[in-house]
Design goal:
heterodimer; A: Rossmann fold; five-stranded parallel beta sheet; 5 strands; about 10% strand; B: mainly alpha; 3 helices
């Protein structure tokens, strides 16, 4: 889908790793996401992934950051809406062994054929072909960071 | 946007409706409209504060580093099937 056509770009699904960095006020990842939003890139925040990011941080600042993220123009929260979605999510958990929050990310990506924006592409590659549609990932990383510096996304 | 107040038809939870009426009856608020107006103002303030906080965090980033990350992201996005 081309942005030149005026059509809305395919949304990207934010996974727990991205949401956790925003929750803990990582400046680099936060700025990247704001730039993407400013470009009109639709971003989806699966609600269970937000739960995990909040759970890991357990600070008011983290929850404020996640609430701010939700307020961005092109960020949409993907809820867990009804029994059918609950059953579908349970099926994905059973099939992949993913944690519920990761499974919710996978479920949203699978249902909408959207790529996952993540800091941990390797994790998703393991499950790339577990679902009906192949999962595609876009990894947030600084190519200049040394391979042995996995925590270097900040700035 | 006009400063003139808009007339809204809304439905609220019975518990909240009772609370709003209680505020009016006890003189804590001048009207039900004022209660709703205050509640929406508070939500707007909280939302704006959250967004401002996010922007403050982003402003502390190293622009060069973010530019490299963005280029990396763009390259992967361009290589996705169907692009």
């Amino acid at each position: 889908m081309s942005e030149d056509s005026g059509a809305v770009p395919t949304p990207w699904v934010l996974d727990v790793s991205v949401l956790a960095e925003i929750a803990r006020a990582d400046a680099g990842v936060t700025r990247l996401v704001l730039i993407l939003d400013g470009r009109g890139q639709p971003l989806v925040m699966p609600v269970l992934a937000a739960v995990k990011a909040s759970l890991d941080a357990r600070t008011e600042d983290a929850d404020v950051a996640l609430r701010g993220l939700e307020r961005l123009e092109n960020v949409l929260v993907a809820p867990l809406r009804d029994a059918e979605q609950a059953a579908s999510l349970a099926g994905i958990i059973a099939k992949t062994g993913l944690e519920p929050w990761d499974a919710h990310v996978a479920a949203v990506a699978d249902a909408s054929a959207c790529p996952i924006l993540t800091l941990d592409a390797a994790k998703w590659q393991q499950h790339a072909n577990d679902l009906d549609n192949p999962l595609h990932v876009i990894e947030v990383a600084d190519p200049d960071d040394a391979p042995d510096d996995p925590g270097g996304s900040g700035g | 946007m006009s400063d003139r107040k808009a007339r809204l038809e809304i439905t609220v939870d019975p518990r909240l409706s009772a609370y709003a009426e209680h505020l009016v009856e006890t003189g804590k608020a001048p009207s039900l409209s004022a209660v709703v107006n205050d509640a929406l103002s508070e939500k707007e303030r909280r939302d704006r504060q959250a967004l401002d906080r996010l922007k403050e965090t982003a402003a502390q980033a190293d622009p060069a580093k973010v530019a490299r990350m963005l280029k990396h992201v763009d390259a992967q996005a361009a290589a996705l099937p169907g692009r």
